[in-house]
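Margin note: ligand = zinc ion.
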Amino acid sequence: MPIRLKSLATTLLLLLTMAATGSTPAVDWVIVAKIREEGLQRSRVMEYEGYIADVLGARLTLSRDMQRGQAWLQGELTRIGLVNVAAEPFMDFGVTWDNEYVSLHLLEPDYTPMVGYPIAHTRGTDGRQVVQAVIVDLLVKADLEKYRGTLKGKAVLVTPPAVIDLAPLTNGVPRLTDAQLKAMEQVVIVPPRPVAARTARNPELLTAEEKLAFYQAEGVVVVLQCESGWLGAVRGFSRPGSRNDGWSRAGMLATPAIVAVTPEHYNRMYRILKREIPVTIEVEVRNRIGESVEQANNIVGEIPGSDLKDEVVMLGAHFDTWHASPNASDNTSGVAVALEAMRILKAVGAKPRRTIRIALWSGEEQGLFGSRAYVREHFGNPKDPAIGAKPASEKLSVYFNQDYGAGQYRGIYLQGNEQARTQLTEWMEPFRDLGMTVVSNQSVGSTDHIAFDEVGLPGFQFLQDHIPGTGGHTNLDFYDTIQSEDLMKNAVIMASYVWHAAMADARMPRKSLK
Ligand SMILES: [Zn+2]
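Resulting structure:
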């Protein structure tokens, strides 16, 4: 038979089989071709990435920066053509906090500008201050007496000098090799080790909150610290105790300014002080602290479904970031991919059976607050008798997440859901040439798919490549390190997975609840 006739016959046979069984084929190659054309030849993913990272910048949960970002985000979802675009408030998240200005200089024994960022939810300095720096080493309560009465008007260096990891500089950051991917595919899951009996905490040890209260009572001007091990990188998160006091205004005002400094500048001050040579710095920090408690929001939008429109397929990423950089990789890249996946689906004229809903979370960096609250509110929690499973939980098929940096998808983690293996593998087939080849039976954590997974709803995170340069959770996470081809591939794969889940005959199978 001539090739064309043969393929026509095969197609007819396939259509007849489908008609006979009434089942949808595993992969819709026609829509895959359209998605690939749109996403690989007319991509907008770097437009999204660039606008969010460059123009909007950092987006700490419940900051003015975040509110500005979320206003843009809702506009963009509407421009893409989504419906039911909304900001869904999910909890009181304290008062807003924004850094407006930082200036840090070594004056003596040698002038140099220094790089530092305030820790979130702290207050600033009283204007510009020129102060002496001292090392403070507090461990137990008895240590307080050594320093009492000596710290007024000082800058205190409170962490040991940073140890710098030169390995990534000398070795680079290689992408995952075929052997590594094979190992991730074949990994044997060992049973979890029994949890060791908890030992009582030594009551003499000072907590981070007790140390801060001491610095405040002693009249310290600024606390300097360094918890980063990479040259040029500042790691700075939240004030200790901020979550416990509900990110309150009183809590923010009750501690000195805290500034995280790069290892090279911090270590230099530390070494000079160890020589017993005085260190003088100039510092000014201005933070804007809100007056009243406000709610944090998640942002959602939809492509409505057709015959199965009450059922939902979800995709998403966290829109919130830490505050010292735009966090181009963590997680602007995930947001850009999710937006682009929705744009692609609209551009190819997708009319899904199930409703496709994008959710761009906040409160992730503080502990998955946004996604957990959303899941509790919409789908409930069968493990918690006070809430129970809500009717909508029967209508959710699956949630797909991106939050492991800006590297391309090389596979997907099965998350212990063996019954989903066939579908996740079949949907991968059109993207093997893009390097997407592995279903890993590993369960991975610490991002928003967990909010679904932990209540028995299918939630998956893609297995992503390691790429060099990105500095998630640091001041160095900028657009410049993002590799466009990786995000283009991800958006195409995300769009296709979401599409196939929205069109499948059955909802994604669920694993049994532990
Ligand atoms: Zn993240």
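The chain has 15 helices and 18 strands.
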